[in-house]
């Protein structure tokens, strides 16, 4: 099963997204957005950024 983004409203009335793996595990979360539409745009930005992203080790 493919991963998916979920968008919901938090207790403060802000919208956040979660990226869940196919097994349901949360693998990433987004910042707080003022609107649901903005959170959905945030998911699109993550998808674009990750499309050609390389894995880079920062430690030895």
TrEMBL record:
It comes from the Bacteria. Gene3D superfamilies: 2.30.29.80. Pfam families: DUF1508. InterPro entries: DUF1508, UPF0339_domain, YegP-like_sf. Residues 10-55 form the DUF1508 domain. PANTHER family: PTHR40606, UPF0339 PROTEIN YEGP. This is DUF1508 domain-containing protein. It comes from Corynebacterium qintianiae.
